[in-house]
Design brief:
Layout lengths: L1 H11 L1 H18 L30 H10 L9 E5 L5 H9 L4 E6 L2 H10 L6 E5 L12 E7 L8 H11 E14 L3 H9 L4 E8 L1 H10 L1 H11 L3 H11 L5 H7 L3 E10 L1
Helix pairs in contact: 1-2, 2-5, 3-4, 9-10
Length: 271
Amino acid sequence: MLSRFILYLLEQLPGLRRTVARWWYDRMATRLRDPGWTFMNYGLVPPDGAVPDLAPVDEADRLPIQLYHRTVSAGNLRGMRVLEIGSGRGGGASFLARYHHPAHVTGTDFSDKAVELCRTLHAAVANLDFTVGDAERLPFAAASFDAVVNVESSHCYGHMEAFLAEVVRVLRPGGCFLYADFRRSAEMPVLERLLAAQAGWERVAHEDITGAVVAALEASDERKRRRIEEYVPRPRARKAAGEFAGIVGSRMYEGFRQREFLYHRYAYRRH
């Protein structure tokens, strides 16, 4: 009952949602600095079998990498200046910089602790940097980027309208917004309306990837449970960690499986 009440408050109070998210990501970046943990998304198993070729060092992160790869598949990042908003622990930005051949990738996140961690973990990637930034008030000039990427981050934002307006502002004409995230099924039409309401772009791709995310949660379940056992000593905290990770049987996992939560990806092209 308490967890449902907390979830209700987070849904109803955007400012509280941002505050809780910042606290949580600061805490994880400070306490959990494992260089082998650089992704935080739920992952994806492509239903059409279209998987990227990966170096052996990246195979352990194949499922979260495949979510990034699928999300950016509607755009060509080669030679482009790319911004990832909500870069977290930096694994996605590093993958894009190393595999999709952009001129440069900038990762930005509102957690200064996460940004500091990313600068340490990914220092060897030459065409990549990280900076502190608020998704609803980006610290970049207008028309600064050829592509903006946002993966499993916007559900933490307080005001989607402000975020989307900022994406349009920093994109150059012809640039792409490559986006993936989840919402409650009843809220997905609201998200669609907000995306469609932006006068500066047109939609070029859309896919419901909920089933592909469920498949990834099932495929990664054993690994996640081992990590929770390793990193979270207290049983009560392990339950919360399992919910956050979407382990099989958790409220998040069942929500996706029963389609109470939907996960979609989109691509928009700036006019």
